[in-house]
Amino acid sequence: MKIGVLAMQGAFREHIASLAALGVEGVEIRRERQLEDIDGLIIPGGESTTIGKLMVDFNLLEPIRELAAEGMPLFGTCAGMVLLARDIIGSDQPRLGLMHVSVQRNAFGRQVDSFEVDLEIPVLGEEPFHAVFIRAPYLERVEPPAESLATFMGKTVMARQGNLLATAFHPELTNDLRIHRYFLEMIK
Fold first, then answer.
1. N or C terminus of the chain with fewer C-beta within 10 Å?
2. Proportion of the chain above pLDDT 70, given as a percent
3. Measured between alpha carbons, how far is residue 130 from residues 6, 42, 121, 133, 150 in Å?
4. Catalytic: which of 14, 15, 100, 172?
5. How many C-beta neighbours within 10 Å does residue 38 have?
6. pLDDT higher than threshold 80 for residue 178
């Protein structure tokens, strides 16, 4: 199994390290031709406007949309969640627009308001997941076929829609590999 990690900006190296810890090859994706031989794609955290613009500049938006339509699993964390959303509240920035969700960017505050919290995520089992939120978004609205998998303060912070997975937090910044493992199970 080979998983691509969009390497335009953000925490892509940390995702590759998490995949390696699970015995899976992670490859940096910067060009369209690199999408050809991967089994799934992770869109990391970072700055969603910058990543979206770079995806346009490097002609990656349409090829990634096509791969998703063909069933390739995509996993977006933080900025990746924003880029997967159909609606970004107050923004017309470039995005993939694949998930039936509305996202609020920087919803929990600025960089200084970053925090960590233990989340109940039933699809991962009973043990809480220690989540790292950095200038995090949340989902204001989740419409079928998308479904909420975890909430914090009444807001959805993890969602799935078929082959699409999104978290508002950064699982790659922890040693808990359950969310990456869950994504890999989506591929199998």
1. C
2. 97
3. 24, 20, 10, 10, 12
4. 172
5. 20
6. yes
